[in-house]
Amino acid sequence: MEFLDLPPMLGAAGRVRLPGSKSISNRTLLLAALAEGETDIRDLLASDDVERMLDALRALGVAWSREGASDNYRVRGAGGAFPVKQADLFLGNAGTAFRPLTAALALSGGEYRLSGVPRMHERPIGDLVDGLRQLGADIAYTGNAGFPPLHIRPAAIRPGGVVRVRGDVSSQFLTALLMALPLTGVETTIEVVGELISKPYIAITLALMSRFGVAVRREGWERFVVPGGARYRSPGTIFVEGDASSASYFLALGAIGGGPVRVEGVGRDSIQGDVRFAEALAQMGAVIEMGDNWIEAKASASGLKGITLDCNHIPDAAMTLATTALFAQGPTTLSNIASWRVKETDRIAAMAKELRKLGVEVEEGGDYIRVTPAKVLSSLPEGIDTYDDHRIAMCFSLAAFGTALRINDPKCVGKTFPDYFERLASVTQAVPVIAIDGPSASGKGTVAARVAAALGWHYLDSGALYRLTALAARRAGVAWDDEPGVAAIAAKLDVVFEGESIRLAGEEVGEAIRTEEMGTGASKVAALPAVRQALLFRQRLFRRAPGLVGDGRDMGSVVFPDAKTKVFLTASVEIRADRRYKQLIGKGIGATIQPILQDLRERDERDSQRSVAPLRQSEDAELLDTSALTIEEAVARVLGWAKSTS
Ligand code: DC
């Protein structure tokens, strides 16, 4: 499976221009398609769900064009029902395309088949179909009753009177009916059965319908009257607001990571309910400021505290509160979120499972979740699963404030925010790393440890991990060239580093890994790709605030490619052999120079010729030849480079 390892974050500040709102983009496209006249849509969201809608509209005979590679589109409206009367539409996992198209097509007098990905076929649509059948629509379930896929056939539509639709599973059913009813030209009243959830999304629907010339009379949130003779007319040009749900991640970043972080594209006057996420964040203790077209969040001196909140009005952004809660004092309870269960995945179950992987206490119920933060977040190489759900991937990225974090299948963010992780990196400051690579016995370990001590940073002796793997393999009777066997040992390596002490399976290791034999073993197991893979995330976990100095062969090239300071530390092989000889003699271990020289040459050869992560100076690394330098001089050089890049 593809994964992305996020570095731990120290802080966040900056500005982000938000991608367009998914809800507004897909509603606007459909309304423009049904309207009379041409509509210029600016800042349309570029994402998977919008692609599904655009493809469907084209298949239904609606002409649209894109202005170059921009986010500006022109749609030539059909001025009523879709011109193409027979089509098979595949709509992926795009609920915002599936539901409204179902309603519009059911009233269009054609024969259509609508399907999606397997998860789409598990998301209920029965309440909408029931509503449309009251109008005379002919819709059949071709899979399970109550769920897509659907088969729509031409039917005699009987508009007028009252249509009843349930509002307590998904507000998208009501949205779909509202947007489709003007196709009938007859005044029709919709009555909502059960408590309407996600009301702000209905407000978006009504606001956009009104931009396209249809004013719905709303009586509370129970009755909606779509006037007779109403026809959609293009408003000319329409701007898509930034996505308020996408804003939530960045506002939370500002609240957790210091800030200020400013999002541009939504503000005080937004028609999207999710802007009220900012109020929830303020309730947790963040400082929020708003302008017409921007919102800004920063941390307050007192930090964040847990809250109890009815999240009916912000169902999507509420997921961001569940991970913001990791950095608050005390538990956070999010209630009235039953709709999470029928989204891209069962979001209550998924959030609970993944939060527990972080060592957090989670209580889940039918329509609520309670998160009690842990003192220290745990992070596993198995990673956070994302269930093909963009919001799970994005909201869990916040956990990287506590630890390095692996996110599985990160590309699922493409549903609404394809470049989310690049934007995340642009407003966050990762824990800094100084990567020192070089050949055996070059003195890099000594230099790295001293640099770490001088800065008060953590230190990773990555060679020790390979040496420990070789030692553990030897003790388990596994040959050093048995790749799967050694990789399994590396993956489960039970090792604790504490200052100078290293414990393997609870036992002090002492000098057992420093022998020439274990050096050779390490060099052999280090050439096995599966072993390197097994140790990769474990090494990244050493990156913790305030910083890390790592030494090895591939610190700068593979393990920490984003390290600000990279050093290739070396010395001539004769000097290195001499240093190793003196070191051994100093420890009272008998040695002669020739075999050491020979062994170093062989090891250099193996480390630099292997196919994975070979030892070599990368282009962006500073060369530090210590043949003629003292340790103090080498340390000073590295500290100087680190200072100039910070
Ligand atoms: O730095 P050292 O001598 O303790 O390393 C022991 C062996 O481990 C060395 O021969 C190569 C390997 N190694 C590696 O391949 N990658 C690292 N990052 C560190 C060490």
Structural class: alpha/beta
* Strand content bin: 15-25%
- Give me the CATH fold name of the largest domain: UDP-n-acetylglucosamine1-carboxyvinyl-transferase, Chain
Give the distance, in angstroms, between the N- and C-terminal Cα atoms. Answer: 34 Å
Description:
The chain is α/β, with parallel strands linked by helices. It has four domains: 8-18 and 241-430, Alpha-beta prism (UDP-n-acetylglucosamine1-carboxyvinyl-transferase, Chain), CATH 3.65.10; 22-232, UDP-n-acetylglucosamine1-carboxyvinyl-transferase, Chain (Alpha-beta prism), CATH 3.65.10.10; 431-457 and 546-646, Rossmann fold; 464-540, 3-Layer(aba) Sandwich (Rossmann fold), CATH 3.40.50. Helix content is 36%, strand content 22%. The chain contains 21 helices and 33 strands. Strands 16-17-15-2-25 form a five-stranded mixed beta sheet. Strand 12 and strand 13 (223-226) form a beta hairpin. Helix 1 (22-34) packs parallel to helix 6 (199-211). The protein is elongated, with a radius of gyration of 30 Å. The mean pLDDT is 95.
